[in-house]
Amino acid sequence: MTPLLTYQGYGVQAEEVTVVVARVTHVYAIRLNGNRGTAVVLDTGNEVIVSEWQHVVEKQLADALRREVLT
What we know:
By secondary structure, the chain is an alpha+beta fold.
């Protein structure tokens, strides 16, 4: 089964966002209006912006991929 990760969306009253780990190509840090977050780029070219730190997202993605390989 393909792993999913759920994050709090970026911004005031943003809804949770769930991404399919296998569709993520890369992530990068953002800062808008003095607030930090992370843009998660998908293989479709779309970006999902979440309120989590970049290093946390990268670690969670790596852990999810590692678990998938081990199963």
